[in-house]
Every structure is written in structure tokens, then in C-alpha cells.
Description:
By secondary structure, the chain is an alpha+beta fold. The protein folds into 2 domains: 2-64; 69-143, no CATH class. 36% of the residues lie in helices and 23% in strands.
Amino acid sequence: MERILSVAACAAMLVLTATACASSSGDAASSASSATVSATSSESPSNDISISPDDLESAVAEQNAAPKCEDVWVDGSQIDADYTMCASDDGNYELLSAFDCEDDTKLASHDANQTWAVIPGPVHAADGEIAADKAYGKAFDACKPS
């Protein structure tokens, strides 16, 4: 079920982004409020999910409240467990892409693997290539991604 909701959330974000880009006037929330998105998980082809206009408006509000990536992914800053996305300098939104760890944390990297974090927790600057970063390697081993 969580995977189906993730697919629906991604579909909603795509629609919101397309709606915001295509709209020549008005805000994305008012443009998106008349849209309905359906998404189907490949694991459950018979389970369609529709997103209501109210849910799309909530997604727009969440997107508009996203912190700037440059403020989040700073060496030593803390990332909360509820972090889902940030706004880049070019106006796009970067959704969290992370390994799910056995202890319910997430191991994520950002900015072409220049920074990484176990979420919730502090951001770390990679020491060179992230794959060769000893601290990242230890975090990855401790994570035991599923």
C-alpha cells in the first residue's frame, strides 16, 4: 500500500509541476484544484488511486512550503524525519530519494553525492567520492538497506 501511495504522490507532483509550468496566469493551487490524477502500482494492477482536488491542493501547499535545498543540505545541519523534498535554485523540487534502513531511518545523498545524511540526523560532506567516503560506508553498512 505504501508503494501505491508513493506512486500516487509522485504522479500528483508531476501534475502539479506541469500545471504550474503550463499556467500562464493564476496560481498552481487554483489550477490544480480541478484536476484528478489516477495512478496504478505495477504490483497491484487492479488498484487505482484517485487524488481529489483537496489532496492536490494539500500537495501544492506542501511543495510551496519546501525548504531550499541549499539551506537543508549543509554540513552539520539537522534533517528531521518528516523531510520529503527541497526546492532547488532553478525552481524545481527535489524529492527525497533514500535507502530505507532496518532501524526505520533513511540513508540519503544529495548534490551529486557531495553531501549525505542518515535521516533523521546531521548532514555530512562527503570526503571525496561518496563511494570511497569511510563514514558513508559505515553508515551504509549500519543501514542494511532493504
